[in-house]
C-alpha cells in the first residue's frame, strides 16, 4: 500500500494514572472509529487497566474495516519501587512519588524506540511527560499534548504560572486572590491555590509542563466547544495555541462496565439492580475518583451526612480505604446499609459512567476530577462539589459559578492525597446534598448541558468536526513530509 493510502497512525502515551489512562483509551476508540490506526504505549500494570476497554473497542470494530488499537507494553523502569507499583494510585509517600517521576523520565528510551521502529503521524502525549516534546521532535513527529483537564482549568493554571498572583496577596488563607487575564473574574481563596513558596517542586514541574505544551504542535482536550466557549476563544486568541476539543470521549467507550479496570467490584451488578428499583432523580452517587484519600474522621462525617440528609445514595469506597470500619463508621450506619432501602455501598471499582446514566440518578458528589465532572455533564447529572487538590478547585468554579450545575460544600484546603485535610462537618455536607437535590433550576441546566454534550460528538457536532480538522491537518502534514518539504514537528 502506498504511504498516502495507509491510515494515519497515532501513538498515545498516557501518564501512569487511571484518570489519564481512561480518557486516552476512550480517545483511541474514538479515533480508531474514524479510521486511525492507534497504538498505546504503557507498562504492564497500566496496560491491564485499559485492556478490557481496548478489547471491547476492537471487538466492536471487527469486520467494519476500522483499524485496531494495539497496546505496546514496555517494562516499568527499575527505580527501587516494589514490584507492581506502576500507577499513581499505589503511591503512599513523597519518597515513592519522587522515584515514580524518575521512572516516568526513564520511559524516554522505550518511547524513542517505538518512534524509531514505527511510522507515526503524531504522538498524543500526556503533558506530564514534558520531555516527550523534544524526544518526538528529534524523530520529526508532531507532539499533541493532552493533560486531561478542562480548558477553563488549563487557562487558570496558565494565569497562575504567568502572574504568580500569590506573591503580592495577603498572607491570609481565606484571602480571595484574582487570577489575572481570564475572560471572567475568577477568584480563589489563597488556601485553594498552588503555592510556589510551599510546594516549589509542584510549581517548577507545572511550569515545565506548560512550557513543553506551548512548544507542541497543539493540544487535544476532552471537552466540547459549547461547554466553555470563552476559554476556547482565550486559548486561540490570547495564548495563540492550536487546540482540538474532541470530547466527551467517554461516549466512545464500547462497554461502560469494564471501563478503566480489570477487576470490577463484586457489588457492581447488585448496585445496578438496586438503582433500577429507585424513583427517577432520587439517588445521589458519591465517589471521589482514583487518587483521593479520606481520613477516618472525614469518612465518619460523610457517613453521618448521608444518613441525616435523608436522601437515597450509592457510595463508592475504594477497596483499601475504610477497610477498618470500626475506625470511622457511625452508629446505625451498618444497619442503614443492611436495610438496603436508602443506601448502597460499592467496595472497589464501580462502573461510574453506567451508574451516572441511570434515571434514578439525581446528583453526584464529586472531587471534581475532570473525567468525573465531564461524565456528570454528559449524563446530565448535577454535582455536589468537594475538591481536594490542584485543578479540582478550578473545575469546581466552572461547575458552580460559570455553568451553574452544582452546589459547593465549601472545601478550602488544597492538599494532595497523602496530606491531611480539614474535616468538614456532616451537617454542612448534608445541607449541600439537600440543596442540590431540591433545586429544579440546577437540575434543568444539567439536563440541557447533557443534551449539548451528547450532540457534540454526533455527526456534524463540534467535537465530531474537531476530530475531522485534526485528521485533515495530520493528513496534509504527511503529504508535505512525503513531498520532501522541510516541515517542523511543532
Ligand atoms: N472511575 C470509575 N469507577 C470508580 C472510580 C473511578 O469508573 O470506582 C473512573 C471515573 O469514571 C473517571 C476516572 O475513574 O473516568 C477518575 O478520573 P477523575 O479525573 O474523575 O479523577 P482522578 O482519579 O484522576 O482524581
Radius of gyration: 22 Å
What count of structural domains? 2
CATH topology of the largest domain: Rossmann fold
CATH A-level architecture of the largest domain: 3-Layer(aba) Sandwich
User: Roughly what fraction of the amino acids lie in strands?
Assistant: 5-15%
- Which structural class should the secondary elements be placed in? alpha/beta
Count of beta strands: 15
**What general form does the structure show?**
globular
User: What percent of the residues sit in helical stretches (DSSP H or I)?
Assistant: 40-55%
Pfam families: UDPGT
Family: Belongs to the UDP-glycosyltransferase family.
Protein name: Glycosyltransferase
Organism: Triticum aestivum
Can you describe this structure?
This protein is an alpha/beta fold and 490 residues long. The protein is built from 17 helices and 15 strands. The strands form three sheets. Strands 3-2-1-4-5-8-9 form a seven-stranded parallel beta sheet, with helices on both faces. The protein has a six-stranded parallel beta sheet with strand order 12-11-10-13-14-15, with helices on both faces. Helix 2 links the parallel strand 2 and strand 3. Helix 1 runs parallel beside helix 2 and helix 6 packs across helix 14. The longest helix has 21 residues. The radius of gyration is 22 Å and the shape is globular. The chain starts with 8 loop residues before the first strand and ends in an 8-residue tail after the last helix. The mean pLDDT is 94.
Amino acid at each position: 500500500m502506498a504511504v498516502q493510502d495507509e491510515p494515519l497512525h497515532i501513538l498515545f502515551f498516557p501518564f501512569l494514572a487511571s484518570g489519564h489512562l481512561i480518557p486516552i483509551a476512550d480517545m483511541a476508540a474514538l479515533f480508531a472509529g474514524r479510521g486511525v490506526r492507534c497504538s498505546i504505549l504503557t507498562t504492564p500494570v497500566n496496560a491491564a487497566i485499559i485492556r478490557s476497554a481496548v478489547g471491547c473497542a476492537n471487538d466492536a470494530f471487527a469486520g467494519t474495516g476500522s483499524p485496531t488499537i494495539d497496546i505496546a507494553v514496555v517494562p516499568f523502569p527499575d527505580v527501587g519501587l516494589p514490584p507492581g507499583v506502576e500507577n499513581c494510585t499505589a503511591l503512599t509517600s513523597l519518597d515513592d512519588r519522587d522515584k515514580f517521576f524518575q521512572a516516568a523520565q526513564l520511559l524516554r528510551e522505550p518511547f524513542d524506540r517505538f518512534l524509531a521502529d514505527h511510522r507515526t503521524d503524531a504522538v498524543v502525549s500526556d503533558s506530564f511527560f514534558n520531555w516527550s516534546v523534544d524526544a518526538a521532535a528529534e524523530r520529526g513527529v508532531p507532539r499533541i499534548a493532552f493533560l486531561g483537564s478542562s480548558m477553563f482549568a488549563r487557562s487558570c493554571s496558565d494565569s497562575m504560572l504567568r502572574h504568580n498572583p500569590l506573591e503580592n496577596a495577603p498572607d491570609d488563607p481565606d484571602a480571595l486572590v484574582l487570577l489575572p487575564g481570564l475572560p471572567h473574574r475568577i477568584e480563589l481563596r489563597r488556601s485553594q491555590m498552588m503555592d510556589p513558596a510551599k510546594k516549589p517542586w509542584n510549581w517548577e514541574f507545572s511550569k515545565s509542563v506548560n512550557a513543553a505544551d506551548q512548544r507542541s504542535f497543539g493540544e487535544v482536550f476532552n471537552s466540547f466547544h459549547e461547554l466553555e466557549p470563552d476559554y476556547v476563544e482565550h486559548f486561540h486568541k490570547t495564548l495563540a495555541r492550536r487546540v482540538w476539543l474532541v470530547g466527551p470521549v467517554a461516549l466512545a467507550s464500547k462497554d461502560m462496565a469494564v471501563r478503566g479496570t480489570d477487576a470490577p467490584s463484586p457489588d457492581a451488578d447488585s448496585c445496578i439492580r438496586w438503582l433500577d428499583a429507585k424513583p427517577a432523580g432520587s439517588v445521589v452517587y458519591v465517589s471521589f475518583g482514583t487518587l483521593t484519600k479520606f481520613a477516618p474522621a472525614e469518612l465518619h462525617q460523610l457517613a453521618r451526612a448521608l444518613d441525616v440528609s435523608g436522601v437515597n445514595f450509592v457510595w463508592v469506597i475504594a477497596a483499601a480505604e475504610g477497610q477498618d470500619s470500626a475506625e470511622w463508621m457511625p452508629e446505625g450506619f451498618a444497619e442503614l446499609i443492611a436495610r438496603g432501602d436508602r443506601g448502597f455501598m460499592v467496595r472497589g471499582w464501580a462502573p461510574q459512567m453506567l451508574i451516572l446514566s441511570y434515571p434514578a440518578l439525581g446528583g453526584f458528589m464529586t472531587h471534581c476530577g475532570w473525567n468525573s465532572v465531564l461524565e456528570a455533564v454528559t449524563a446530565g447529572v448535577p454535582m455536589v462539589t468537594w475538591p481536594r487538590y490542584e485543578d479540582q478547585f478550578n473545575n469546581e468554579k466552572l461547575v458552580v459559578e460559570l455553568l451553574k450545575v452544582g452546589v459547593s460544600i465549601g472545601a478550602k484546603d488544597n492538599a494532595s492525597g497523602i496530606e491531611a485535610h480539614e474535616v468538614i462537618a456532616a451537617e454542612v455536607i448534608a445541607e449541600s446534598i439537600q440543596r442540590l437535590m431540591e433545586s429544579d433550576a440546577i437540575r434543568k441546566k444539567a439536563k440541557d448541558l447533557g443534551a449539548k454534550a451528547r450532540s457534540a460528538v454526533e455527526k456534524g457536532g463540534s467535537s465530531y468536526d474537531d476530530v475531522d480538522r485534526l485528521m485533515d491537518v495530520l493528513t496534509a502534514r504527511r503529504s508535505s513530509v512525503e513531498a520532501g518539504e522541510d516541515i517542523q514537528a511543532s
